[in-house]
Amino acid sequence: MGALPKRRPAGRRATDAPFRIRPARKADVPALVALERIAFTDPWSSVDFTDCIASGLFIFVAVTRDGPVGYIVARRVLDEGEILNLGVALPARRRGVGRALVGHVLTTLAAAEVAAVFLEVRESNLPAQRLYDAFGFQEVGRRHRYYQRPVEDAVVLRAAISAGGTSA
Questions:
Q1: Is residue 78 part of a domain?
Q2: What is the per-residue pLDDT across 53-71, written as a single tens digit (0 to 9) for each?
Q3: 129, 121 in Cβ contact below 8 A?
């Protein structure tokens, strides 16, 4: 009988399914769209993902042997970065996938000489806010009625990052 996965400090188990993070490819788009439709009420389209890949944005997928279980999209403008989208399959949530994707993109942005990263998150999405808080993101503003379906404010978060990809 195999050993149980190690527990994290909060009592949660580390991810049960091993995954790796790699750059997204055009062939990933159908899987990314499927994940997006499950994760969001106002999902991105296949054209949105295809455009992200073609335009050279930072787009990474977390992949298991069964295919993509999460993705993150970010961009760099001068010395600032922005996380545009993060989605994780329902069965893979609370298994370290989102945390690994955020860490990976922050490290990538830091290597691209980004000093600060911004993002918007739904006011009601407390699990995502806790995830970002763990990386040093802090509220810097709000966007009234930013999200649709349902209409909701966005919390604007910012984190300063260092060359090592961690919050400064």
A1: yes
A2: 999 899 999 999 888 999 9
A3: yes
